[in-house]
Amino acid sequence: MDKLVIHGGRRLQGEVSISGAKNAALPLLAAAILAPGKHVFHNVPRLRDIDTTLELLTTLGVEVDRSGLEHDHTLAVDTANLKSHLAPYELVKTMRASVLVLGPLLARTGQAEVSLPGGCAIGARPVNLHLKGMEQLGAEVQIEHGYIKAQADKLHGAEIAFDISTVTGTENVMMAAVKAEGRTVLQNAALEPEVVELAEALVKMGAKIKGQGTEVIEIEGVKELRPVEHAIMPDRIEAGTFLAAAAITGGELLLKGARADHLAAVIAKLREAGVAIEEKGGGLRVRGDGLRAVDVSTRPYPGFPTDMQAQLIALMCRAEGLSVITETVFENRFMHVLELERMGANIKIQGRSAIVTGVPKLSGASVMATDLRASASLVLAGLIAEGTTEVLRIYHLDRGYETLERKLQAVGAEIQRVKEQ
Ligand code: UD1
User: Residue 120 pLDDT > 60, yes or no?
Assistant: First the structure.
């Protein structure tokens, strides 16, 4: 197992290229199942979650050509021949987003067996709304031996109102509905840019979708879809993490490809905290110079993303004053707090809020990553901690950040990946 060893105190300076968005790539790869044939995706990030998805697609019979992935982030998948409709536990347990094959398999083959994801480090993350949506489209859904078993001779359009805004739930049901007979209306649909990108790619495949990016998505089912060539949008959470890295180190970075329109809530909050951010040359220029405490509540898009909560807490550890950071999207998503406290942070948890009092310094320690974004917050803290920080269990980080340590090294951080003994 690898760990990251960081010697804190370096000011970051230079340029960082933002990779393709993990959370856009995963549903797009699942969507390829809907249209038999060869799909080509550009700007695919090289991540463990992508490897897991490709492994899953391979078990379903999809032919994967990853020869372009290493040198230019291009990936081809041929979905002409499927041989299975089963997503096994071994794969789903390592990545909940595997459940995204449910809708496409059901729409293409009339049946799907997908392991239930089970618990995860950031609290209960049920899929009940995915299943309810499939049932409303006419599928018969049962849970047997830990598996979701769904089947439908024919899917039909329906009026579906989501009780909670769910990103992958909206994506899954949308993918099933594009081939259902008749009209589907999704109410309280998720607004995330990744949902919009999926809808746009489906439209390129021949789907009839309107209203993506609003709370009401209308879909008119079609019989056939065709393969697509599509470039994946830049990762707004990776970009947000580098904004935070510049801010916490008092550095100056140009984030190439970062999109201000996808990061409005994050940029507004960081500006309030005293960070200078401007749009520049197809990206964002960020300069950190002292940090003020700010309060924030996570919300579905366009609100402040839960996937940036842990990184903001790391920042607030070094801000002047007291900040209250409230997590409203997931329960139990404060596991990084105990680790940050081991580095000298002053944080109290009260219900769903973390109350952070800025401290003059953090000190390096061995800390354990518990999930993807928690890992990022520990790396941020390590960048300014006195002495050496070791971040253990970085396989979480590798799920969602492409070569994070190399990108940080290139802008001046002293950070190394080493094999854990
Ligand atoms: C997606 C993102 C993840 C991000 C999250 C919230 C992907 C692959 N992952 O996860 O990075 O943190 O959105 O922005 O895109 N819920 C239910 N029942 C359901 C589905 C969800 O109760 O059937 C609840 C969840 O427990 C959670 C809330 O809805 O409290 C939002 O979760 P959701 O938007 O579904 O998150 P994911 O799609 O899993």
Answer: no
| Annotated catalytic residue 317 | no
Confidence class for position 236, pLDDT limits 50, 70, 90: very high
Q: Which residues, including other chains, have CB under 8 Å from residue 67's CB and lie 6 or more apart?
A: none
Name the residue type at position 244.
A
**Phi, psi for 281 (deg, rounded to 5):** 45, 55
H or E stretch covering 31 = helix 22-31
**pLDDT tens for each residue of 72-113:** 999 999 999 999 999 999 999 889 999 999 999 999 999 999
| Per-residue burial over 134-149, b = 16 or more CB atoms within 10 Å of its CB, e = otherwise | bebbbbebeeeeebbb
Whether the pTM exceeds 0.90: the reply is: yes
Q: State both tokens at 121.
A: 């480090």
CA atoms within 13 A on the CB side of 29: 33
Which residue, by CA, sits nearest to atom 20 of ligand 1?
127
Ligand 1 pocket mutation, candidates 102, 128, 168, 266, criterion most atoms within 8 A of CB:
168
For ligand 1, pick from 114, 128, 164, 307 the residue to mutate: most ligand atoms within 8 Å of CB.
164
Cα atoms in the Cβ-side hemisphere of radius 13 Å centred on 303: 14
Q: Which residues contact 251 (CB under 8 A, 6 or more apart)?
A: 11, 12, 13, 245, 287, 288, 411, 412
Q: Which residues line ligand 1 (CB under 6 A)?
A: 23, 26, 96-97, 125-130, 164, 166-169, 194, 305-307, 329-330
| Minimal-distance CA residue to ligand 1 atom 35 | 166
